[in-house]
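Re: beginner question about structure tokens

> Can someone show what the tokenized structure looks like for a real chain? I only ever see the sequence side.

Sure, here's an example I had lying around. Input first:
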Amino acid sequence: MIRTALIAAVVAFAASSASASEVRVSLVGKSAEQINADILDAARTVCAKDVAGETMILGAYGRCVKATVQVTQQKLAAL
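And the corresponding structure tokens:
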């Protein structure tokens, strides 16, 4: 049984090196809606750290959150 999903965001920006952060999200006893909400919250946390110091922080943050949620949901569906 899957107990936790690892959200790892590796975001590469043009002309810069990649950075990575991780947040673990428990899946035990949660509905699909709660899991999705927790994934979104974790992605926001990870991306806030990863885009700190970026010149165009709002755009980078939005792209990071969208990509992180999408990749995490794909990984979760594949399990």
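Each token stands for a local structural state, so reading them left to right follows the chain. The longest strand covers residues 4-11.
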